[in-house]
Design a protein that fits this description.
single chain, alpha/beta, 3 helices, globular
Length: about 80
Amino acid sequence: MTAIWQMLPNYWYGDAIGNHAAVIESLLAEWGYETKVFADVIHEKRTARHYEEYQRVATDDSWLLYHYSTGSPVNEFV
């Protein structure tokens, strides 16, 4: 199984990018992919890991979807 991770600067509840990432995560899981969202700022109603933890799960056969939306330390990290 291939893992498909998502990363974004802010995983906020109720905004377009946060909602989009949540739907993608749900679909990927439904389709059998290992998936998780990584972000710098995470709303208390969202479940995600801090972006620096991505290095622990990244493999050569995994994919990363980056949702670029604003200036953030995540941009340089990616």
